[in-house]
Structure formats: C-alpha cells, structure tokens
C-alpha cells in the first residue's frame, strides 16, 4: 500500500471536513468524526491542523474558492448577459449536483455570524476576503458594473436561501428568476 504524503492527507482532511461540517456545522461536528472519515487518529489530525477552527477555516476557504472557480469557468470568454446566464446556470447546477457545497456555504455564514458576535473577527475577515474574490470574479464578466454585480450576488444569496430551505424545482417561488437561475432537479422533489 502506498503511503500518502502529509499534503495528500491534508487534502483528505479538507474533503472530509467539508462533508462533515456541511451537515453538522462548526459546533455540531466533532474532530473525531472528521478523523474517522479520513481514517486517521485525532492526534494525527492535529499534526496536520492546529485545531478544529483551522480545519473549518480550510474547509470554508476551499468551498469559497471552488465556488469562485465555477463562476470563472462558466464566464470564460463571455460578457454581459451571456456571462450572467452562464454563471447562474453553472452555479445552480453545482448546488443541485453537489448539495454539500451549498450546505457548507450556509454553515460558513452561520459560523461567521457566531464568531463575530463572540468578538472573533479573524474568521469573518477570511470569509469576507473569499466572498469578495467571488464578487470580483463575477464583476469583470458583467462589465464591471457594480449594480449588475450586486444584483447577481443578491439573487445568488436568495437562491442559496430558497434551495437551502428545500424549495423544489417547479415551485412557484422560482417563477421570478431567469430560467438560468432557477432550481435544478436534484434540489428537492418536484411539486
């Protein structure tokens, strides 16, 4: 059997953490569950990451980065409304096909809110930085128009909330969205 390098093991931990945290959130997920999913001991886990907060930060950063990459890939070579629809479609497909991505995002926002309320601003700074990188990735293909970018991001957050609450494709709540931004099959059962 080939042994994994520390970096490969670290990658395994981040993937497992995204899965575990997406379901249980920061406070409801134990490092024991993450270690078990990866197949390592907790002491080994803490050799890779200094603590649970560091693991959650790494998982949150990964989630934000992967979301940004979806927008960058979808909009490559496109501008304006064509880019808007391509990005909206790519994102709604992402959260339909990989619901853990949406769940991890939502858990990240909850954790930031709790950390900020407790006076811990480090986590919020990191998440805000990642969110602004997503904003900037959307901003350029939309022609650098701050109003278009803000509207796109606002609708995206509404998509997150509605999909997170389980509104299925075909539900009347989606009727006001462009077809490209409506829930895709996989985000709940049909009405």
TrEMBL record:
Fetch the Gene3D superfamilies from UniProt: Tetracycline Repressor, domain 2
Which stretches make up the HTH tetR-type domain? 7-67
Q: Which Pfam families match?
A: TetR_N (PF00440)
Q: Which PROSITE patterns has this protein been placed in?
A: HTH_TETR_2
- Per UniProt, which keywords does this protein have? DNA-binding
DNA-binding region, residues: 30-49
Q: What is this protein called?
A: TetR/AcrR family transcriptional regulator
């Amino acid at each position: 059997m080939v042994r994994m390098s520390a970096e490969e093991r670290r990658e395994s931990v981040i993937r497992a953490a995204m899965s575990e945290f997406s379901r249980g959130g920061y406070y409801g997920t134990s490092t024991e569950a993450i270690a078990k999913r990866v197949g390592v001991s907790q002491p080994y886990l803490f050799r890779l990451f200094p603590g649970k907060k560091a693991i959650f930060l790494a998982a949150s950063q990964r989630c934000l980065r992967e979301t940004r990459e979806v927008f960058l890939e979808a909009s490559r070579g496109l501008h304006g409304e064509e880019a808007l629809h391509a990005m909206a479609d790519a994102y709604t497909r992402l959260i339909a096909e990989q619901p853990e991505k949406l769940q991890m995002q939502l858990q990240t926002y909850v954790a930031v809110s709790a950390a900020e309320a407790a006076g811990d601003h480090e986590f919020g700074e990191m998440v805000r930085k990642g969110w602004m990188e997503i904003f900037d990735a959307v901003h350029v293909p939309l022609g650098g128009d701050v109003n278009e970018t803000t509207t796109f991001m606002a609708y995206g957050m509404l998509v997150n909330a509605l999909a997170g609450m389980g509104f299925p494709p075909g539900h009347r709540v989606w009727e006001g969205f462009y077809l490209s931004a409506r829930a895709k099959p996989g985000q709940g059962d049909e009405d």
